[in-house]
Write a structure and sequence with these properties.
Layout lengths: L1 H11 L5 H13 L1 E2 L3 E7 L4 E4 L21 H10 L3 E8 L6 E11 L4 E8 H78 L1 H25 L4 H8 L5
Length: 243
């Protein structure tokens, strides 16, 4: 306990003179924490020695004090301190508001001076703190879930966009591959088609031969028509350069 450490040098000195006890009381009177945190001291007979919130009660014996529910508060504090220290819960007037509130107090014995040193907290303050903690936790959880949701949405967007880009790229590469294949095979197919036409259409070759023969016959006929009539004419045409 903070108060025990604050007065430890005085208490461990085993001095019980009035100056030492007064100094210890003054230290405990000045010790505060939070809005409603303070320390009090009773002797084993129930007389109040230190109470910073109710100084008007100092020196008063309160062993028979009961809270609003009839609980023997001071008697139980002394008992717990004698047992080695412990908690006592009771209803008491809350200094800031003046209204009854449940208080949880811890009491410990200072054997060299036979003092009961105690301090406590009001449970409504604890509940208010816990409510704020729960509210903050809820806010943090909401922020965390919101961040997870945003991150997941962004991740899905990236995945979908990447898939679309890969699909477009794949289609483009496939189209280019088809075009390359077509350029490689179409000329060869054209050559084979031309060869096939020559190979599989012999009538065309014979027609060309007949055409050339017909031309020759036509020319020869033309020459023959020019040949003079009679044997002499024939001999003269035969003696010419006609092949």
């Amino acid at each position: 306990m903070l108060a025990q450490h604050a007065i430890a040098p005085l208490h461990e000195s085993a001095r019980t003179d009035e100056a030492t006890l007064s100094e210890a009381k003054a230290i405990l009177h000045r010790l505060d924490y939070g809005n409603d945190g303070y320390f009090f001291v009773y002797d084993l007979q129930g007389t109040l020695l230190v109470h910073s919130r109710k100084p008007e009660l100092i020196g008063e014996n309160r062993l028979d004090y009961r809270d609003i529910n009839g609980y023997p508060t001071i008697e139980m504090l002394i008992r717990k301190a004698r047992e080695g220290g412990g908690f006592v819960q009771y209803a008491t007037e809350k200094p800031p508001t003046g209204r009854p509130a449940i208080k949880l107090t811890y009491a410990v014995l200072l054997p060299n001076w036979e003092w009961v040193l105690g301090t406590g907290i009001y449970l409504d303050d604890v509940q208010a703190v816990l409510a704020k903690v729960n509210e903050q936790v809820a806010v943090n959880n909401y922020d965390t879930l919101l961040w997870i949701d945003v991150s997941a949405s962004l991740g899905m967007t990236v995945i979908i966009f990447s898939g679309l880009m890969l699909n477009v790229r794949g289609r483009r590469e496939a189209q280019e591959a088809v075009e390359r294949t077509a350029r490689q095979h179409l000329p060869a197919a054209g050559s084979r088609a031309a060869t096939g036409r020559k190979r599989h259409h012999p009538v065309g070759g014979r027609a060309a031969t007949l055409y050339r023969g017909a031309s020759h016959v036509s020319v020869s006929g033309e020459r023959f028509e020019r040949c003079p009539a009679g044997d002499e004419g024939n001999r003269a045409w035969a003696a010419s350069d006609n092949p």
